[in-house]
Fold:
Amino acid sequence: MAESEDAFIPRYRGRLREGEEVERHFIVRHKSVATSRQGNLYLIVRLQDKDGEILGRLWERIEEIAPRFSLDDVVRIRGKAVRFQNEIQLLLSEIEPASPEAWRIEDLLPATQRDIEAMWRDLGHIVRRIGDFYLRRLLSLFLDDPAIVAAFKTSPATRQGAHARYGGLLEQTLSLARLVLFLREQYEGIHHELLLCGVILHGIARLRLFDGGNTFRSSNAEALLGPAVLEITAIEEKIREIPGFPEELALLLEHLLLSQPSGDPTKPSISPQTLEAEILCAIHALDTRIDGLHSFLETEMGERGGWTRKHPHLGRTYYRTSYPAEEHWSVARRSSPPSTSPESAPIGPLFDGKKR
Structure:
């Protein structure tokens, strides 16, 4: 089914002038074949790079070009910027799959506006405060791996949606960890170290969900087994490497991860049946909602105030006020607070072999 001509498309923030020749890489977010009023077939695609999303249309060689690529592939396009219904779109002459060496993830996804190394140091400070011997050892088996650390710092949290940006996984993980620490001060009886471990392990598990290569599609393993199974499999592999890991602690941790939402933050794999699992579902949904709405407002309004278009998922318009001054809250949100603690150092190595 073709994407509607008036379907909601986030406004493209890249600098494209009408009539400009364009040759660049994009992620394919929508693809369909439609029929014009004159009965001619054409290909319509919704394309994304770090500057947002833009519609493109191809009117020639549809049967030859359309089978070359799939949703969430990275492609190289050639075409011209044209104006249609007061929006810049692309009149395409070529679409072809891109080789993995030809593009960088930071050119295709918006980037976090926060300092990645500062966020990593802050997360390290939080992790080093975990006193439970077994949880700390489990985390160290992942976070002392340079390949995991490198991927954790740069990966998006999701393919589309909240924190779907370069550095978004680290940004979301730190946000959730800070919420856990805040709630620890507000409510008694929370096993906050279990929660912190669950937050971080859930982030690490998401690194296994992408195919790599020239696509942002789900991996075959995720498509066949689901993200929750991949998470538990990865955790169980590491738990078996830790002699004497308490059976009940493993059970609580696995329940925490299975009840953590994957994809839809309102629909976890199983219902949460511990206080910690309920909390993690709640803060994940809160973080997802706020980040998604904030990104929507920025895309719609830029630096201006006023009313947005109707939100494509929430079904209502939003008003963005210019009071208080935007610079007051935007700077506070995007800047990691400076850390003066000597513990705020790079995370690894985590494990010192001592039970506390």
